[in-house]
Design goal:
Number of helices: 1
Order of helices and strands: H
Number of strands: 0
Largest sheet: none
Length: 32
């Protein structure tokens, strides 16, 4: 995997974190 520049890597990691937290919220809502 090619190393991404910081200006591209940081929003990518932020998007991964946001999508992961949304997924966790959905699973928590379904289990409730």
């Amino acid at each position: 995997m090619r190393k991404l520049p910081s200006w591209l890597r940081e929003p990518y990691v932020l998007g991964k974190f946001v999508s992961w937290s949304m997924f966790m919220n959905v699973t928590d809502f379904v289990q409730r």
